[in-house]
Amino acid sequence: MAKSVSKSASDNVTRGSAKVLNRTDLTRRLVAVLKHDEAVVGGIGNTNFDLWAAGHRPQNFYMLGSMGLACPIALGVALAQPERGVIALEGDGSILMALGCLTTIATVRPRNLTIIIMDNGIYQITGKQDTATRGVSDIVAIARGAGLEATWIADEAHFDELIDRRFEHGGPVLYAASIDDKPGVGKTVRDPSAIRQSFMRGLGTSRAGDLDG
Ligand SMILES: Cc1ncc(C[n+]2csc(CCOP(=O)(O)OP(=O)(O)O)c2C)c(N)n1
Ligand SMILES: [Mg+2]
Questions:
Q1: 49 alpha carbon – ligand 1 mean position (Å)
Q2: Any residues with CB less than 8 A from the CB of 71 and at least 6 apart, and which?
Q3: Which protein residues touch ligand 1 with a CB less than 6 Å away?
Q4: Cα 181 to middle of ligand 2, angstroms
Q5: Which atom of ligand 1 sits closest to the CA of residue 184?
Q6: pLDDT digits (tens, 9 = 90+) for 6-42
Q7: Which CATH number covers residue 79?
């Protein structure tokens, strides 16, 4: 039986009380417990570098070039394949460019979609400029305002528990991790058509591509 964290325990985690975590570690923890061919969509830059580093799977999609598209892409996959779990990994700067998608996701309510925001308060990959979440803007509060169930991640154990019960809510959820300023560790292959082809095959909609062994 899945472990459970009480809703109130989740609700009590604030941005200030959340432990500062590491993206590479969280991504490895996530990929290590995937059991059902879930689709995982990594956002531009560090989120997809760490997803790649955690071990390529054909059910992974790596967004290259444009910020803010992990969640919209994941939403499309979740709606197209409602029996497949779908997880979006996105940075704070990137989700801030696409906040409207949270309102769409909250409205459409795909029960199979989990969003994980890696919030370092900076545009890490372009020189560590501050994002709005460095100041007053709180991603979890924004997500709740959009109508999503959302929580800050207290620590690694809480992350593991949240991932364990990610599809039990009957609706989409957003988990926000306060993370350090370390860069991603992998180097995603920069071939959009190979990534697309591999992903389509991973979703059962196409034949094998260059990334498939
Ligand atoms: C639409 C768009 N604007 C700007 C850029 C340049 N850019 C690429 S990654 C990035 C920062 C991403 O920040 P965040 O999502 O917080 O990820 P982090 O680098 O902190 O891991 C920027 C500004 C871009 N690729 N696309
Ligand atoms: Mg960032």
A1: 13
A2: 41, 88, 90, 95, 98, 101, 102, 105, 115
A3: 44-46, 65-67, 91-94, 120, 122-126, 131
A4: 8
A5: 21
A6: 444 456 899 999 999 999 999 999 999 998 899 999 9
A7: 3.40.50.970
Q: From ligand 2's centre to the CA of 154, what distance in Å? A: 18
- Ligand 1 atom closest to Cα of residue 96: 15
**How many Å apart are CA 123 and CA 101, to the nearest integer?**
20
| Tally of structural domains, the chain | 1
48-96 pLDDT per residue, tens: 999 999 999 999 999 999 999 999 999 999 999 999 999 999 999 999 9
Q: Could you list the residue range(s) of the whole structural domain that residue 141 is in? A: 7-202
- Whether residue 211 lies inside any domain: the answer is no
Q: Residue 69 C-alpha to ligand 1 middle, in angstroms?
A: 11
Q: How far apart, in whole angstroms, are the C-alpha atoms of residue 172 and residue 192? A: 27
